[in-house]
Amino acid sequence: MDPLDDVFAAMRVRSALYARLEARAPWGVSLAGGESARFGLVVRGSCLLEVPGVAQPVALAAGDCYVLAHGTPYVLRDHPDTPTVSCASVVRDRIGGVVDLGGTGTAASVICGWFHFDQRAARPLLDLLPVLLHVKMEQARAIALQGTLQLLAMETGEPGLGSGLLVSRLADIVFVQAVRAHAAAQGQAQTGWLGGLADARIGPALRAMHKDMARDWTVETLASAASLSRSAFAQRFREKVGQAPLEYLTHWRMFKAGNMLGQGHAAVGAIAGAVGYESEAAFSKAFKRRMGMAPGAWRAAARESVAA
């Protein structure tokens, strides 16, 4: 187990929508922003991707994948000078189908999609991700992604029974694999727990912590997992992760407890034990201090959010 496992398990992708653009130059389309994450795959041809906050247009080639986890608006087009039309005006009732776009020039096929997930559960990950995840076909880590993308291309090109459900599940996998490819490409240059996972010493301690959140961890036992002295571990952990070890542990215990409260029916006492608290009262006090409301109120709010 590691932080990515905990976040992905809690995100609960609720739905995924898509359209396949069959475009010929000149063509351009603008896609509005929103709460849902955006993703795309260039099946054939090439195009330019323009995203607010990214200085230059990004050249996309066949096999490239992109994810905008924050729901940022963006533009796709064949040339920087080509005018765009809004996605809403060309897609409309063709969600899940093929949209023809542009003129009679060079062809490009792009699958554009968006999916909804639990924003609160995804926050520990979203806070660490850049505005754009661009996975190039030639990246070593992208090889594992290609099989998923090929299935996605096939299901959107020739829809069959259950294609809508299958595309939703594939979109979930695309997001996970895109994050993994990004993490592998960035390595220790990353900040926060993603950077900690890439560190040869801190990574094992993080994985041990997340594998057994109920254990009575101390800085000494975590340092042992990292094969470091207590002081060296504490300093390195803060440098890599940005938090003290036990502060980090408390944060993730409350994160896990919040997800358990919102997604299940376990008693508060049982949840307290699962995240390392012997006393329900001590857990409730710590939870309210960290999350801003009592466990019962959190559970009620989470259920109202799902119902909405």
Instruction: Tell me the major beta sheet.
Output: 6 strands, mixed
Unreliable stretches: none
Please give the domain count: 2
What's the shape? elongated
Amount of beta strand: 15-25%
Alpha plus pi helix count: 13
Spatially, the strands of the biggest sheet line up as 9-1-10-3-6-11
From the alpha-carbon coordinates, what is the Rg to the nearest angstrom?
22 Å
Protein name: AraC-like DNA-binding protein
Keywords: DNA-binding, Transcription, Transcription regulation
InterPro entries: AraC_lig (IPR032783), AraC_XylS_family_regulators (IPR050204), Homeodomain-like_sf (IPR009057), HTH_AraC (IPR018060)
Pfam families: Cupin_6, HTH_18
Give the topology.
Elements (H helix, E strand, L loop, with lengths): L2 H9 L3 E10 L3 E4 L5 E8 L1 E5 L7 E4 L3 E4 L5 E4 L7 E2 H5 L6 E5 L4 E10 L2 H8 L6 E3 L7 H15 L5 H24 L5 H7 L3 H10 L7 H7 L4 H12 L3 H19 L4 H7 L5 H12 L3 H13 L1
Parallel strand pairs: 1-9, 2-8
Antiparallel strand pairs: 1-10, 2-7, 3-6, 3-10, 4-5, 4-7, 6-11
Helix pairs in contact: 1-3, 4-5, 6-7, 7-8, 8-9, 10-12, 10-13
